[in-house]
Amino acid sequence: MALTAETESRLYRSLRVAAGAAAHLVALGFPAAVAVLARPGSSEGVWPVPIPLPSAPQFSFLMTEALLIFSPETSLLRSFSRKVRVRAHWALQLLALLCALLGLGIITYNKHLNGKSHFVTWHGLTGLLAVLYAGGQCAGGVLLLYPKLMKNWTLAKLKLYHATSGLVGYLLGCASLMLGMCSLWFTTAVTGASWYLAMLCPLITSLVIMNQVSNAYLYRKRSQH
């Protein structure tokens, strides 16, 4: 029996709510698991902060939650005004950038102490690019806070470009995370089915964020033509 339009709409909304809830759980659970695995003073860390600790929260928790704030179904601040959500988004993104810079500094210092070269692997290169991209994205967000700085651009167009470029940056960060999970440290600490489950974490959040941005901006923009 064919489903009615109303039933399909309810089913689709339920799936989006379930996916958003899963993204929230992954965003919190993944960095918590990394914190348990990354013991201070290990060969891959610098006391007292292991290398993965600043990096995992950056993309898995702070950036994910910063983007999920605008989810119409699963935002933790959906009862607040858009102005409050924008300010919270901005604060979380700044914290994410600080975590990224902290992680980059720790990794560089650790490599220097051990006489190892850095930014020679795909993980290192994508991680560096993700940090630089995040800095540029935060700077671009200032234009949305003060749209009068771009008089020749409409606010709607600025939002579209910011959301699209932000999605690219988020996917870049998730790619860096996944490449990091292929490192010797992670594959030694996490083996078997647990490793595959860990790899699913950034994939799940990426799909949820992609769907959210696409529905909010890209599909809506296409339907207006």
Automatic annotation (TrEMBL):
This is ascorbate ferrireductase (transmembrane). InterPro entries: CYB561D1/2 (IPR045150), Cyt_b561/ferric_Rdtase_TM (IPR006593). The keyword Cell membrane does not apply. CDD domains: Cyt_b561_CYB561D2_like. Its cofactor is heme b. The keyword Transmembrane helix applies. It is found in: Membrane. It comes from the Eukaryota. It is a multi-pass membrane protein. Residues 14-220 form the Cytochrome b561 domain. Its EC number is 7.2.1.3. Keywords: Electron transport, Heme, Iron, Membrane, Metal-binding, Transmembrane, Transmembrane helix, Transport. GO terms for cellular component: endoplasmic reticulum; membrane. It holds the Pfam family Cytochrom_B561. The chain crosses the membrane at residues 17-38, 89-109, 121-146, 167-187, 193-213. GO terms for molecular function: metal ion binding; transmembrane ascorbate ferrireductase activity; transmembrane monodehydroascorbate reductase activity. The gene is Cyb561d2.
